[in-house]
Amino acid sequence: MKALNLKSMSWIMALAMMFIVSFTGCSDDDGENTPGEKIEFPTLQEATCNADGTITISFKATVDWKLTSNAGWCKFVDGEFTQSSITGKAGEQTITAKISGDGQNYSDDNVAEITLTLGEKEQVIYKITRPKKVFNGLTIKDENGNVYNTENPIIIKGSGYEKIDVVYTTILTESEFEVGISTSENPDWIKVENKGEGKFNLTFNNDNTEGIDPKYSISTEKGHKLVFGVQTTNEGLINVSVPVAYEGLKENVLLFKPEYINALTVNPEGTVFTETSSGSMEGTEGVKYENQLSSTITVRDDKFHVLKITEIKTPAMGTYFYTYDVTQEPDWVTVVEEGTKLTLTVAALPEGAELRGAAILVIPEVIWNKIKDTDLQATLFTRDSDNGAPMDYLNDEYTDYIWTHFTQEPKNEEIEIILKGFYTNQEIIDWATVKEEDLIPFDNSDQTISTSEYPGQIASIAWNASFPKSLLENNKSVCIQTNSIPAGHDFGVMYNPWEGEIQITNKTIDGKEYMVLTGYPSSMSFEQIMAGIGNFDTMDFAIELNIGMY
To answer: Which among 260, 262, 271 has a CA at the least distance from the CA of 408?
Structure first.
């Protein structure tokens, strides 16, 4: 018996075992370890296409795919046919979608959604908008013949707040059919007036139920449209819509609440504003405002520009003349803006500083943008130099924008000016020898001198003197004494109806100043001598003196 070769058997068995293991491993690989293809959808795209147009849709599919349209007017081209769905194998794809006019109307745009199916998953990958049908039987224009359409929207003009300040936006329509505007289909903030023959006047409706304030503009981005109805013969009522916007409150309107109409003065500390009844010297004190001025602004879209300028106040001719310098901003005036609220404060006047003034203009932003690069001095003001002193007048189109103007003056230790009347009982040859005791005071009976309860023509304080002309007989004199003449002022005469007959001079007697009248009037009249204490160059007078005789 032949013995077995165990070494050879071991090798054969080992080889058989390796074969079995190798076969089993391949089977597992084929069944479990082959991963599926990754599914990715393209990014959603949107497009607009008119009827009878086409859209190209491109995508990459890693598995078999299917495209579906949810709109009957949007179908895929498949050879000579069009259909609502189309399928294909994996790979790069380019599909054409054809847009028809089926179901298209004059009122609404239509949107088709294109859905891509990959395996068991689906997703909208395209949205196609088909614009509404264009009705060519209606033309909508403005008064200048410009056509309104999607690219040129209707913009409602802004009116003022006063009922008389209404601005209409006039629309003209041209059609062979009857045209109307349906208020039920249009924004409530639009007020429509049908003027007949295709003409419509549009304004902002202040009583709108949406609570929209007329001062705020409304852009086309809000999506508002004005709908015109056209009653056709064959197609019935057709609605034609045009985008509509609103420009906001009338561009040149600006309101202050409260207003500061009159000129103001500010005390040196900057804590009290005092209103005067007018800009003249005769103006009386009025309302006082403590510490600050404050107003709320009403203007289009709450947008405005604050302009601070220097005011120069010059006394002359018994009044005040104002000039302005737009190049000098008064840095001692602070204006704080909090939304539509303005608050103004003034710094204290430095020790030894002279009078200073400021004017504050608040200008609608739309107006400011038109003038800010111009010569503002010439744009805003007109200067008049024909009335004794230069005077700047704010041009008419900007007068509503003056918020306030004021001056701040140093404290004046004013001495009350007192006048007294005297006369001589003889002609005076040498006035240097005359003493006050040589003069006879007015008796306040036949001869009087006193202040008037009314302001004068050239000064806020007026004195009246009256005496018989007999006091001037035989070259005797009447003397009017003043206790004070302020610095820069003189005691003089503006008008003497007896020029050449009555001489008026100034004398100093015992250190006091007098105006002396000497001479006899040849005839009498109701006229008076007008004199005063003041600056005769600037016509700034402390008092006025009217002298009458009988």
So the answer is: 271
CA 64/CA 116 separation, integer angstroms: 11
Of 359, 350, 330, 360, give the one whose Cα is nearest residue 268. Answer: 350
Exposed, middle or buried by CB within 10 Å (0-12, 13-18, 19+), for 331? Answer: exposed
Q: Which of 279, 540, 277 is nearest to 393 (CA)?
A: 279
Q: Where are the beta strands (DSSP E) in 317-425?
A: 319-325, 333-338, 341-346, 356-364, 381-384, 391-394, 402-408, 419-423
Give the strands of the sheet with 81-83, arranged side by side: 54-61, 91-99, 74-78, 81-83
Q: Confirm if 85 and 104 have CB atoms less than 8 A apart.
A: no
Q: If the chain, 550 residues long, is cut into consecutive pieces of 10 residues, what is the mean pLDDT of each piece?
A: 39 42 36 59 95 95 96 95 95 96 87 95 96 87 94 95 90 93 88 94 94 95 92 84 95 95 92 74 70 96 97 77 94 97 96 92 97 96 87 95 93 82 96 96 94 88 95 96 92 94 96 96 88 87 93
Strands 154-156 and 237-246, sheet pairing? parallel
Burial class (CB in 10 A: 0-12, 13-18, 19+), 288: exposed
Burial class (CB in 10 A: 0-12, 13-18, 19+), 69: buried
What is the rounded CA–CA span in Å between residue 196 and residue 532?
A: 71
- Cβ pair 103, 72 in contact under 8 A: yes
For residues 510, 512, 515 and 517, what is the CA-based torsion angle, rounded to 10 degrees? -20
Buried b (16+ CB within 10 A) or exposed e, 14-34: eeeeeeeeeeeeeeeeeeeee
- Residue with tokens 């002609």, as numbered in its chain: 427
Whether the bond into 258 is cis, omega within 30 of 0:
yes
What single DSSP character describes residue 378?
H
